Amino acid sequence: MMRSAISTAGISREEWLRMRKSGIGGSDAGAVCGLNPYSSPMKVYQDKISEEIIDLDNEAMRQGRDLEEYVARRFMEETGLKVRRSNKMYRNRDYPFMLADVDRLVVGEDAGLECKTANAFQAGKWKEGQIPPHYLIQCLHYMAVTGKREWYIAVVILGSGFQYQKITWDDHVIQTLITIEEAFWNQHVIPRVMPEPDGSKACDEVLAKYYHSARKNSVVPLVGFDEKLERREALLKTIWELEQEQKQIEQEIKCFMQDNELAVNEKYRISWTNVDTTKLDTKRMKEERPEVYRDFARTTTSRRFTIKAA
Q1: How many domains does the chain have?
Q2: CB-side exposure of 26: number of CA atoms within 13 Å?
Q3: Which of 124, 143, 222, 232 has the highest count of CB atoms within 10 angstroms of its CB?
Q4: Rounded CA gap, 169 and 14, in Å?
Q5: What gap in Å lies between CA 26 and CA 20, rounded to an integer?
Q6: What is the CATH number of the domain that holds 128?
Q7: Residue 281 falls within a domain, yes or no?
Q8: Same structural domain for residues 201 and 261?
Q9: Is 77:163 a contact under the CB 8 Å cutoff?
Q10: What is the pLDDT of residue 303?
């Protein structure tokens, strides 16, 4: 596959974020395929069509970047291979909507390296050589963009261990990924057609931002949703029954524990601890100190979604 490359050395983070808007990157690929538990096609779509540059950086992401060099060093120690930074953003010339900003390239091999960190709670997702699906898609995407026939993924599980896996080129899988990304770009991003919702929290966040306020007293005829709303009612009933069963089990355990804080066996550790909570009595403040309440009160606008039978 033919590719072009743009140097990212010395550019600002804002410029880098703007470059990413011009195509689908590795961290977008899993979401576009519906495999990223933290994102969705709708969220990727919103990011690509928006002129706004939003840096969603957080502490976990910063630690991941800071530890990237450590993961790369551990990979070299473990394998005897050498890796180097590329300092470039790659674009597939045949499919220019596909971008890649890779962690490392492997010296002397037709391969790259993706560096990851995981905490103890995420360790199970890497058990017995497994790779979380959205990370696997990320590596396959990089292979599709760069044309490299192999990709390594290495992970440091904080306080626990290190492991790596090698992913090899698969024509069918790579072509399927390209087809999915091409459809997303040409059927959604280019014509500005929002993807269908998928029930994820990421979709909720996009919809809350996209349609953040309602036009007062506006009404639209509800057409074509009766069957889905009936299905929703059936789901709510099932959920209620399952929640009741869950609560009953928990209540039985509480009766067994009585005033003990912990219950432990070889498989489970259950805690029923004391929690002290301090809350501001806003109702009393409003009545007795209205001037203070006004000074510190903050009004926000959101939308409440409710469904009732007619």
Answers
A1: 2
A2: 23
A3: 143
A4: 33
A5: 10
A6: 3.90.320.10
A7: no
A8: no
A9: no
A10: 64
Handedness of CA 249, 251, 254, 255 (dihedral sign): negative
Q: Are 115 and 104 in contact (CB under 8 A)?
A: yes
Do 139 and 30 lie in one domain? The reply is: yes
Beta strand residue intervals within 75-128, DSSP E: 83-84, 88-92, 99-100, 104-106, 111-118
Report if residue 36 sits inside a domain: yes
pLDDT beneath 50, residues of the chain: none
pTM of the shown model: 0.76
Cα–Cα dist 171/177, whole Å: 10
Selection from 94, 189, 197 nearest residue 146 by Cα: 94
4 close to 90: Cβ distance less than 8 angstroms: yes
* 106/238 same-domain check: no
Residues 128 and 248 in one domain: no
Please identify which residue in the block is written with the tokens 């001037």: 291
Q: Please answer whether residues 22 and 51 qualify as being in contact, where contact means their C-beta atoms are separated by less than 8 angstroms.
A: no
Cα dist. 99→12, 17, 20, 146, 237 in Å? Answer: 18, 12, 7, 9, 45
Domain that includes residue 237, residue range: 227-274
CB 81 within 8 A of CB 107: yes
pLDDT tens, 23-58? 999 999 999 999 999 999 999 999 999 988 776 666
Give which of 57, 56, 58, 31 is closest to 45, Cα–Cα.
31
46: left (phi over 0), alpha (psi -120 to 50) or beta: alpha
Question: What local confidence, expressed as pLDDT, does residue 189 receive?
Answer: 97
Residue 66 inside a domain? The answer is yes
Residue 69 has a CB neighbour count (10 Å cut-off) of 13
Residues 236, 171 share a domain: no
42 and 182 co-located in one domain: yes
pLDDT score recorded for residue 305: 67
Which single residue is written with the structure tokens 């044309």? 147
Does 132 reside within a domain? yes
